[in-house]
């Protein structure tokens, strides 16, 4: 396995770049890598590069950038607005939603939110590890928590908000999103910015649901006949969105040539 690392430094072919403490520990103590061994690097803006370990020791490492492996590519502009959960559940949500291609996380404090303290540095570390493992070329933004009132007051009406409603009449999420896709005005719609809003384990207060549902940029949706845990609901909504309106609906790119192996000349174009 060739290690794939996020480094917050400029990447350019021929340059030697320093590895941060996290990367040094992973390469030296976990993967037991030595000078000359290959690595893959990305920084979220310059693309993905093949590289090799130029030197490594207890006090640091230098990685030599060799070639561009993939040009920079982004993810759909979909935010996940969620009520903070208990530590393990929030960590799980950040990891899996990063894998699913969320562009930004916005924690939201609602009336029934029971956990309001978040370690944003830990959440960022979870997102980095998930991006490294899933071939993602970007990192999601992680915003500081806001109250629901603050969120709605500052909301741009150009960003369509998909409300995961636990109760009341609402179209199934797949039906609602498919209606956007098949609308004759979809290609000219201002809604190329999206967000999903999920409540806490106790659900939204009735007054909160009434307030949110009446906003013109909000589409309430249902997630099926069962009551889902808050983290399950958020990931379900994100997966359905990506499969209908996001990059999950696109044809997958051609597989990358494994590092160190030439392309098969007999392979069809």
From TrEMBL:
EC number: 2.1.1.193
Role: Specifically methylates the N3 position of the uracil ring of uridine 1498 (m3U1498) in 16S rRNA. Acts on the fully assembled 30S ribosomal subunit.
Chief location of this protein within or outside the cell: cytoplasm
CDD domains (alphabetical): RsmE-like (cd18084)
Domain of life according to the entry: Bacteria
Catalysed reactions, as listed in the record: uridine(1498) in 16S rRNA + S-adenosyl-L-methionine = N(3)-methyluridine(1498) in 16S rRNA + S-adenosyl-L-homocysteine + H(+)
GO CC terms: cytoplasm
UniProt-annotated location(s): Cytoplasm
Pfam families: Methyltrans_RNA, PUA_4
Domain Ribosomal RNA small subunit methyltransferase E PUA-like: 20-65
Domain Ribosomal RNA small subunit methyltransferase E methyltransferase span(s) in chain numbering: 77-242
The protein, known as: Ribosomal RNA small subunit methyltransferase E
GO MF annotations, alphabetized: rRNA (uridine-N3-)-methyltransferase activity
Keyword Cytoplasm recorded: yes
One biological process term in Gene Ontology: rRNA base methylation
Keywords associated with the record: Cytoplasm, Methyltransferase, rRNA processing, S-adenosyl-L-methionine, Transferase
Assigned protein family: Belongs to the RNA methyltransferase RsmE family.
The keyword S-adenosyl-L-methionine is assigned to this record: yes
InterPro entries associated with the record: Alpha/beta_knot_MTases (IPR029028), PUA-like_sf (IPR015947), RsmE (IPR006700), RsmE_MTase_dom (IPR046886), RsmE_PUA-like (IPR046887), tRNA_m1G_MTases_N (IPR029026)
